[in-house]
Amino acid sequence: MRRIQKIMTAVFLGGVLLGGIGTGIALVEYSSLSYGGECLIGEEHLVTENLDFRFEQDGRTLVVAYYGTPSVMEVEEDPSVPAGIVRYQVTYNEKRVIPSLSFSKCGEELEESEEGEQTGEEREPVYLGYLTLTPHGCGSDFRSFMENKDRILEDLRQKKISDYQEAWITEVKVKVNPGTRPYIELDTGWY
């Protein structure tokens, strides 16, 4: 019995020694890597597309939004956009995302207060609904990894590691005609 315990102890200590050596080598290799910064993958597949939404300008307010990154921080006036059209100009990776607009109608219209008209008070806006840019993912993470593995391996050969970010939606602009602008409200989602 004593002999088996000695053998098992020797095997255990040998494993600890080899594990320690392996860990040391791994740490030396890892510490020799330099950081290459953020690296955007999929830039070669970026396209810009206009997504238009037509609505009737009947005095109600349309709320526009996109809650992703990059977020929309302002609505641009563009005379080339027809009146009654909200144009989302979207730059995206066509291999990874399909953008679309989704409209949610608000509840029943609020009646305008006759008192508000008589006293000259500003009335609350009556909302038509919410128009939101919605990204739908397509493709697979594994396919993306396999398409970019050579780039990642080349960086490792050069003893460099980067923060690889895949391009999805890279730019969003909301454009409307100057005559339509009073009927548009931007919801940034950050209150």
Tell me about this structure.
The chain has 191 residues and is of the alpha/beta class. It has helices spanning 2-31, 114-119, 141-157; strands spanning 34-41, 46-54, 61-65, 75-77, 85-93, 97-105, 127-137, 160-166, 169-176, 184-186. It has a four-stranded mixed β-sheet, with no helix packed on it. The longest helix is centred in the first third of the chain and has 30 residues, at 2-31. The chain is elongated.
Short description:
The chain has 191 residues and is α/β, with parallel strands linked by helices. The chain has three helices and ten strands. It has helices at 2-31, 114-119, 141-157; strands at residues 34-41, 46-54, 61-65, 75-77, 85-93, 97-105, 127-137, 160-166, 169-176, 184-186.
Provide keyphrases for this structure.
alpha/beta; four-stranded mixed beta sheet; elongated; 191 residues
* Number of alpha- plus pi-helical segments: 3
Structural class: alpha/beta
How far the N terminus sits from the C terminus, by CA atoms, comes to 72 Å
Question: What spatial order of strands do you see in the largest sheet?
Answer: 2-5-9-4
Low-pLDDT windows of residues: 109-118
- Secondary-structure element order, as H and E? HEEEEEEHEHEEE
> How would you sum up the major sheet?
4 strands, mixed
Total beta strands? 10
Radius of gyration: 29 Å
Question: Residue-averaged pLDDT, rounded?
Answer: 84
In one word, what is the shape? Answer: elongated
Residue share in helix: 25-40%
Strand content: 35-45%
